[in-house]
Design brief:
The complex is a heterodimer of chains A (123) and B (107).
Chain A: E1 3-7, E2 10-12, E3 18-25, E4 34-39, E5 45-51, E6 58-60, E7 68-73, E8 78-83, E9 92-98, E10 117-121
Parallel strand pairs in A: 2-10
Antiparallel strand pairs in A: 1-3, 3-8, 4-5, 4-9, 5-6, 7-8, 9-10
Chain B: E1 4-7, E2 10-13, E3 19-25, E4 33-38, E5 45-49, E6 53-54, E7 62-67, E8 70-75, E9 85-90, E10 97-98, E11 102-106
Parallel strand pairs in B: 2-11
Antiparallel strand pairs in B: 1-3, 3-8, 4-5, 4-9, 5-6, 7-8, 9-10, 9-11
Classes of the chains: A mainly beta (123), B mainly beta (107).
Chain lengths: 123, 107
């Protein structure tokens, strides 16, 4: 069974940093693109970033480019999101999500999703 | 960037009703569209991919249609467990974008 477990969320002051992790199991992690998607309280879904299985291609939303860095450690089956220069508008539940198809067949849909980790940016 | 406009933003319906949700893309994107269901406090769940393909394990009362710029999610006979918020998502190009969501509420 595919499992994605996020961790690392919490309360941080504006301008601060936080690193989220997503521990993956139940599939060949290195074969699949992985993404972060966030949801501000009471709001809709916003795609944040995607990294291919090898880590060779990375994509960011304009709202986080230059402040957030996605990475992965395929030896540890773990996805990361380093978040710097955090702003109040970054407050959200952050989900990691897996592409349902491997390698070159990647689809950019999301299935499954982790349970999410809450990041609150406030003084 | 491809903008996704979803309508309605909310709908009140009864068990057994047929519900239709639409999603319009700001530019053509073939069939690179997915639909998700999200219940309060839970992660989204993939229902439909490639505009009309039913994800494994999803009940057949859910169906998707459309291509290009106009897409539809239909629930043929609403069940109690279907009351949730539904989102469309385009996977045609980065940045990936979602519709604003449709909340299906009990009438």
């Amino acid at each position: 069974e595919v499992q994605l477990v996020e961790s690392g969320g919490g309360l941080v002051q504006p301008g601060g940093s936080l690193r989220l992790s997503c521990a993956a199991s139940g599939f060949t992690f290195s074969s699949y693109a992985m993404s972060w998607v966030r949801q501000a309280p009471g709001k809709g879904l916003e795609w944040v970033s995607t990294i291919t299985g090898s880590g060779g291609s990375i994509f960011y939303a304009d709202s986080v480019r230059g402040r957030f860095t996605i990475s992965r450690d395929n030896s540890k089956n773990t996805l990361y999101l380093q978040m710097n220069s955090l702003r109040a508008e970054d407050t959200a539940v952050y989900y990691c999500a897996k592409d349902p198809k491997p390698r070159s067949a990647a689809t950019n849909w999301f299935d499954p999703w982790g349970q999410g980790t809450l990041v609150t940016v406030s003084s | 960037d491809i903008q996704m406009t979803q309508s309605p933003s909310s709908v009140s319906a009864s068990v057994g009703d047929r519900v239709t949700i639409t999603c319009r893309a700001s530019q053509g994107m073939s069939s690179w569209l997915a639909w998700y269901q999200q219940k309060p406090g839970k992660a989204p769940k993939l229902l439909i991919y490639a505009a009309s393909s039913l994800q494994s394990g999803v009940p057949s009362r859910f169906s998707g249609s459309g291509s290009g710029t106009d897409f539809t999610l239909t629930i043929s006979s609403l069940q109690p467990e279907d009351f949730a918020t539904y989102y469309c998502q385009q996977a045609n190009s980065f940045p990936l974008t979602f519709g604003g969501g449709t909340k299906v509420e009990i009438k």
